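Quick start: what a row looks like.
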Amino acid sequence: MHYTQSKIILTIGNWFDRAEKSWHSQGFVRIMASSLIFTYLMAISLIELKRAGFVLWEIIPSNHFKSIEMAFTLLLFFEVISLVFSLVHSVSKSMEIQLQILSLILLRNAFKIFGSFPNNYQIMHMEKEILYMFADAFGALIIFGIIIMIRKYDKHRALNRRVDMQKSFVSAKKIIGLVMLVVFIAMIFFDVYFFFCELDTFNFFRMFFTFMIFIDIFLVFISLRYSNDYQILFRNSGFALATIIMRLAFEAPAPYNDIMGVGAAVFVLALVIIYNRIPLPDVVEK
């Protein structure tokens, strides 16, 4: 029996398709937008209540700009789930979303630094923090521009000319995507749970990029079942290396983290441009 004809594989694929359809539905998009607005306004309200002395909860910050960081974190959680669904349609598209997540993290870092300023905004002797804030902001801006260029040059070509082999590859990615979905939702749940229980939280996005390194390497090996072309092997391995660079950026001090993040984005852009100049069948990856 062919791989894609297995009832188990078809059932898993149907589960994934239903989850993706629900995720991209207009109703769920409105729910996500509403939850971001609610989180932002609720954070501001709780911070103001704490400043007035009505709330004594230690986990609530006293600086209003921390509310921006909280809303951005929720937005990043949504981006992580979106990455799972993009992986099935295009490996290169999932790499774009990894860069999007990195750029939003850098923007969040800039807001976080601004939120650490005194309430009277006296910035004397804070020259280093201001420099780091600008480095994060411009690093995010450069990555944003590179993502736009990647979209321009990326043709999303098929891994294999044979339709049945391509469908089999997509089915394999759906299985991987469903596992990723369960893992990421569990990570988000525990991160939020630990936060509200005032327990030691883990760095979600460090773990996310670490997990993505293993997923990218696994996809390199999976893709060899369907094509052993050197250019495809090199591109997918290069994507895995870019994820490693992004992961290392979390450990680097500012502003080297921004340099490494931009370097990873430039590497992906160069890889996409060179790969798409190779004469291959121009078929959209499905």
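That is the whole record. The CA atoms of residues 7 and 176 lie 17 Å apart. The mean pLDDT is 87.
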